[in-house]
Amino acid sequence: MVRPSEHWQQRVRGLLKVELARRNVTYTELVNRLAAVGVKESEQNIANKLSRGTFTAAFFVQCLDAIGCRTLRLDVNE
Fold it and tell me: Global pTM?
């Protein structure tokens, strides 16, 4: 059984991965786009964060902004 906090981590990780996939943005490209908005991250660090599903709301919004996501569907898994 998945613990409640793990459920939310999986959900937010899935939301970000879906938005990256919709835009065909790789982790390498995400690193470059984040750098363009002043956020320094390595590809390995991004891979680790998304693998764990543990990252801040600020990082989540920075990623969405960097890839040009202006709206977010929360029902992607339904």
Answer: 0.87
